[in-house]
Amino acid sequence: MKLFSKAPKTKHYSNKVLSPLMLVVRREFSTFVKSKGYISSTLTMMILVIVAMFVAYIGKNHANSLDFMKSAEIAGKAQNSVLLKHGVNPVQFSQEVAQKTAELTKAAHINSPDTIAMMISIGVGVIIFMSLVLTGQAIANGVAQEKASRTVEILLSLLKPWELLAGKVIGIGLTGILQILLIVGSGALAAIGFGVIDASVITTHLGAGLWIFVWFILAYFSYACFYAALGSRVNSIEEVSSSIALIQIIIVMAFYVSIYAPMLGKGVAWLVTLSAYVPLFSPFNMPAQIILGKVEWWQIVASLALTLIFIPVAVWACSRIYQNSIVNTGGKQSLIKLVAKNVN
Questions:
Q1: 3 state SS of 276
Q2: Tens-digit pLDDT profile for residues 173-186
Q3: How much helix, strand and coil, in percent to the nearest 5, is found in the chain?
Q4: 71 or 242, which is more confident?
């Protein structure tokens, strides 16, 4: 009987250790990380990254293929014949061509710093974009599902609204961090394994990698609160897509500006510079600029400061929308009215 009486006390104590917020975080993390959508998307992106590294390996070593070597040998013989005909020494000519070719190859080779930096910046942008869209939709769908099924009314009788909101955002955010670590890790190992880049390149860009991690966290919290707020405004899961359309458009715009604007030349340089300081755009743009080495330290600090100022304001506004909408099953109210309305 003594053993039986001690067991419930231990269990009761363990529940007291975990705060309501941590219980929600644990529930959201364990539920989402085991979902088919999360597992399939993570595996798909890991496979795509590995395939991309293999394609880069094939492209890098294409010059060593047998057909290319035979073609080069035939072309060399024809070239020497023509040079001798015109009184040019083929050996001296080949040496000069080889020297010039080496100079041009060094500037345009796949292993050149600029090329590697461009590849990494594009890859990072794609990963951040995919992860934000996946986790954001999961937050909006989760909030809408809890509201539609009336589960949220039970949860709010045990939890404060901010605990439920914060727990959902943090829990799903941890799955996003795990996803990025898995994708980036598999890509780095594949790149080194296939010989696309040297291990020293990873070490060289380690500082940029830490900045990317920081900017992903800032990007996540910048967008996640909007997904939760917009998801709380609907009464059914079918309405989520239309409700979050605006924030989805902003994410797509931020992604395209960070990826394609630098390729368009000096004509849109102002757009790249401006977007680096706009909070919802800077988490995409600034990591790319850091990797490419096109920003000074003070620009990074300024962009970071603006984003850090924006996030608390966005969280405050979105939390008011969430708390005023989550138990409201009537018609939709405008976002401005929900922000201005006193919290229930």
A1: coil
A2: 999 999 988 988 89
A3: 85, 0, 15
A4: 242
Strand positions, DSSP E, 84-149: none
Cβ-Cβ contacts under 8 Å for 23 (sequence gap 6 or more)? 167
Please give the single-letter amino acid code of residue 340.
Answer: A
**Half-sphere exposure in the Cβ direction for 180 (13 Å, CA):** 27
Looking from the CA of 109 toward its CB, the CA atoms found within 13 Å total: 14
Q: Are 228 and 320 in contact (CB under 8 A)?
A: no
DSSP state of 86: T
| C-beta separation of 232 from 321 below 8 A | yes
Polymer length in residues for the chain? 344
49-78: b (≥16 Cβ within 10 Å) or e: bbebbeebbeebeeeeeeeeeeeeeeeeee
For the chain, the distance separating the N- and C-terminal CA atoms, rounded to the nearest angstrom, is 48
pLDDT above 80: residue 118 = no
CA 17 remoteness from chain centre: 34
Give one DSSP letter per residue of 209-242, joined into a string: HHHHHHHHHHHHHHHHHHHHHHHTT-SSGGGHHH
Which residue type does 40 have? Answer: S
**Which amino acid is it at 194?**
F
Distance (Å, rounded) from C-alpha 80 to C-alpha 94?
A: 9
- Round to whole Å and give the CA distance between 47 and 53: 10
- Give, for 137, the enclosing helix (H) or strand (E): helix 113-148
How far is it, in rounded angstroms, from Cα 214 to Cα 227? 20
Q: Using CA atoms in the order 315, 320, 322, 326, what is the torsion angle rounded to 10 degrees? A: 160
